[in-house]
Amino acid sequence: MDRRTLTAFAIPGALLVLFIAWPLLRIVAAPPALIWETLLDQEVQRSILLTFGASLVATAIALLTGVPLAYLLARHDFPARWLVEGIIDLPVVVPHTAAGIALLMVFGRHTFLGRVSGLLGIRFVSAIPGIVVAMLFVSMSFLVNAAREGFEAIDPRLEHTARTLGASHWESFWRVSLPMAWRNIFSGAIMMWARGLSEFGAIVILAYHPMVAPVLLYERFESWGLRRAQPVAALMVLVSLVAFVALRMIAGRGSRAGWRMTTRRRREVWGKSD
Amino acid sequence: MADDHPEEKGGMGEVRLEQLHVELGEFSLEGITLDVAAGEYFVILGPTGAGKTVLLETIAGIHRPLRGRILIDEVDVTDLPPEKRGVGFVYQNAMLFPHLNVFENIAFGLRLRGRRRDVGSDRQIRERVYAVSELLGITHLHHRKPDMLSGGERQRVALARALVITPRLLLLDEPLAALDPATRELLQRELAGLHCALKATVIHVTHDFEEAVSLGARIAVIHQGKVLQVGPPEEIFRKPNSEFVARFVGVRNVFKGILRPAGDGHKLLSVGSMDMAVVTDLTGQVYGSLRPEDIIISREPFRSSVRNSFPGRIAGIADRGSIIYVTVHLSGGGGAPEASPPLDLVCAITRRSLEEMALREGEEVYTAFKASAVHVFPGAQG
Fold first, then answer.
1. Could you list the pLDDT tens digit for every one of the 382 residues in chain B?
2. Which residues pair with B131 in a beta bridge?
3. What residues in B contact A167, CB-CB < 8 Å?
4. What does the alpha-carbon distance between residue A193 and residue A178 come to, in Å, rounded to a whole number?
């Protein structure tokens, strides 16, 4: 690229990066003492722990259910596959408040599911399980899609080879497919978890209380205004950032990823065989 | 199933395919019937897209045939999953497990078996992995990850991984195609040696004619999902039974002979009673092949630097449009009785030279070709 083209491409890009970074820097630039004070606020602590925990549970549920689904989508052609894939992607485009309303109509107190689970002592509305299902609903796409891409990138001939070496389909999944897709799955889980942390719309409708961090922040802003909301926001941005970067580093550690083929490369390679 | 592991019954690996029909996306196999004898080195030869890999994978149990049966050692295995068939499989790109090092790749099959019963102590696994690694000369690679290996090393590891479970049948899918020529030749010789030593049945798929001739005791030519011809290499290239086989095998001159040193850097390849100068590092019994376009025809004897020149009589002229194929029956004189049939050379000339020389059948001509034009390759053993 010559200098002029480089400049022409770099300027708009730089503006966009600035647009994202500036507000974040601005918010994090709260006086450290104030942030420290906020950190000692028990209500803030509770809500941050609740947010992290609930999102973790949602991610765990998605791991148990979404990874098998992702493998099926990557390996099997079944009649309504396009429909399933569409449903998986839907939460990304649905307004999250609408998602909250939809969840309320299924998990609400007077719905069938609400009553049955009520009998078992599980309440969704204004309770932690409600927060978890809201997070699960809006963020599982990230995990399922990442895992599916991970499985798709594995040449099926590796699984075939494992089979001829004596592995059942089940064993070849555990010993070849899962270890190979693990990095994708893990990074999908991080994305999902991070997305769950930031969820507001769906949660606020299903479970205003107990307050997750974004709801708490909203409440402080509504009740006391910008000045009181800023340190809370700063703290949340910082905490999320630290957790996100840490997990990213774990996921990226030792990844030479030389064997992980991109979709295009895989097509080339597969296309050649008959 | 009375026995979950037929491979450990010490079967001989005789394979019989009966009217196999397979459909898989754009590939389909129609009515494949083949018999492979126990211990045979059998080559399936065909162009890309012929369905060779699908056929091999069907034998391995990856794909289920629509119709037909697969018998290994006279037992119907058509409904058996791959892990119970006792076959080893090596793909073109080796398909090593990238998350495991070389040792663990080779030990993969043994560890699975060990889990099912008590044959998998760490010591036993180590012993077997080392034994097969030494056979293939890859012991020093044990700690490497597959992406740190060369193409030839990868194929050796893939072979070791397949062989360590002592399969009664070894399926090789273009195992040499991804290698550079030198490595390919080396590994090809090793494959032949391994087959001799292990006596396992091998079915080897390739699109490379010379590879097929070098390795195969018999060759099956397949095209568009059908078997066109089965037979020993010489039969395939001497008597192609169809237009396709003739064209795929190529109009070429292939002859069997014995190499003798000639002293001046060349070697002499004795074919029947004729000695032709060739350039090669090989020794012993080999094949030579010569492309029709590398042969010159003239009416006068050659007095140029061309190393090989033989007189002969025109046995046939085939018009193929812009190229004319002239078959010259070489008059090498007498000839040893049990030598290969009298050598006919097919030469390609342009229409113009045909007209200029006014060649006719039965006329005496001289053929000539350079020593370096003869491609020498190892012959099938036994």
1. 334 444 444 568 899 999 999 988 878 899 999 999 999 999 999 988 888 999 999 999 999 999 999 999 999 999 999 999 989 999 999 999 999 999 999 999 999 887 655 556 888 899 999 999 999 999 999 999 999 999 999 999 999 999 999 999 999 999 999 899 889 888 998 999 899 888 889 999 999 888 898 899 999 999 989 999 999 988 887 777 877 887 787 657 888 888 888 877 778 888 877 888 888 888 888 888 888 888 888 888 877 766 788 888 998 888 877 778 888 988 765 444 444 456 788 888 888 888 888 888 888 899 999 888 888 887 765 4
2. none
3. 83, 108, 112
4. 20
Alpha helices in B199-307 (DSSP H): 209-215, 233-238, 243-249
Q: Which residues of B touch A254 (CB under 8 A)?
A: none
Q: Is the CB of residue B213 less than 8 Å away from at least one CB of chain A?
A: no
Query: Which of A161, A179, A274 lies nearest to residue B89, judging by beta carbons?
Result: A161
Question: Does B137 lie at the interface with A, CB-CB under 8 angstroms?
Answer: no
User: Which residues are within 8 A (CB) of B77 and not within 5 positions of it... i.e. 6 or more apart?
Assistant: B6, B61, B70, B71, B84, B85
Burial, A234: exposed, middle or buried (Cβ in 10 Å; 0-12, 13-18, 19+)?
buried
Q: Report residue B195 CA to chain centroid gap.
A: 13
Shortest CA gap A173–chain B (Å) = 12
The distance of A6 to chain B (nearest Cα, Å) reads 35
Among A160, A180, A259, the residue with its CB nearest the CB of B147 is A259
CB contact under 8 A, B83 and A164: yes
Whether A167 has its CB under 8 Å from any CB of chain B: the answer is yes
* Burial class of A14 by CB neighbour count within 10 A (0 to 12, 13 to 18, 19+): exposed
**Whether A176 and B93 lie within 8 Å, measured CB to CB:** no
B62 and A176 within 8 Å at the Cβ level: the answer is no
Q: Are A274 and B85 a contacting pair at CB < 8 A?
A: no
Taking the CB of residue A260, how many other CB atoms lie within 10 A of it? 18
Residue pair A134/A100 in contact by the 8 Å Cβ criterion: yes
Strands, DSSP E only, in chain B?
A: 15-24, 27-36, 41-45, 67-72, 75-76, 87-90, 169-173, 201-206, 218-223, 226-231, 253-261, 267-271, 274-278, 285-290, 296-298, 308-320, 323-330, 344-350, 364-369, 375-378
CB A214 within 8 A of CB A222: no
Place of tokens 């009649």: A79
Closest CA to B20 of B74, B56, B73: B56
With 0-12 / 13-18 / 19 or more C-beta atoms within 10 angstroms meaning exposed / middle / buried, residue B59 is buried
Residue B211, C-beta contacts closer than 8 angstroms, at least 6 positions apart: B43, B176, B184, B188
Beta bridge partners of B42: B203, B218
Give pTM, 2 decimals.
0.79
**Pairing relation of β-strands B87-90 and B169-173?**
parallel
Q: Are B371 and B278 in contact (CB under 8 A)?
A: yes
Q: A165 and B99 in contact by Cβ < 8 A?
A: no
The answer to whether residue B162 neighbours chain A at the CB level (below 8 Å) is yes
ipTM associated with this complex:
0.78
For A195-217, the pLDDT digits (tens) are 999 999 999 999 998 999 999 99
Distance from CA of B349 to the nearest CA of A (A): 35
Cβ–Cβ gap B165/A166 under 8 Å: yes
Given the structure tokens 């812009």, which residue do they identify? B322
| A 59-118: CB under 8 A from B | none
CA dist list (Å): B325 to A172, B317, B349: 54, 6, 6
Instruction: Name every chain A residue with its beta carbon within 8 A of the beta carbon of B27.
Output: 274
